[in-house]
Automatic annotation (TrEMBL):
A GO term, aspect molecular function: transferase activity
Coiled coil: none
Protein name, entry field: Sulfurtransferase TusA family protein
Keyword line: Transferase
Organism: Paenibacillus ginsengarvi
Claim: Cell cycle is one of the keywords in the record: no
Domain UPF0033, first and last residues per copy: 7-31
Stored Pfam families: TusA (PF01206)
InterPro entries noted in UniProt: TusA-like (IPR001455), TusA-like_sf (IPR036868)
Top-rank taxon, per record: Bacteria
Family: Belongs to the sulfur carrier protein TusA family.
Length: 75
């Protein structure tokens, strides 16, 4: 999936992946896609809930070798 920016949040524990995602999302234009890489197992539920509550859209998520990847479209 194409993304406009990639955020490396690997090695960060809750709530830092969300904090960094919010900060990076603020830099994007509406409709652009942020790709987030995280190792925190709670990131999947946290990012899905955060995206829904802030008007963004979690387009997809995947796991590769213990790294969780998320594609979030800015609302």
């Amino acid at each position: 999936m194409n993304s406009h920016k990639v955020l490396d949040a690997k090695g960060l524990a809750c709530p830092m992946p969300i904090v960094k995602t919010k900060k990076t999302m603020d830099e994007l234009e509406s409709g652009q896609v942020l790709e987030v890489h995280a190792t925190d197992k709670g990131a999947k539920n946290d990012l899905a809930a955060w995206a829904k509550s802030t008007g963004h859209e979690l387009l997809s998520d995947a796991e590769e070798n213990g790294i969780f990847k998320f594609w979030i479209k800015k609302g």
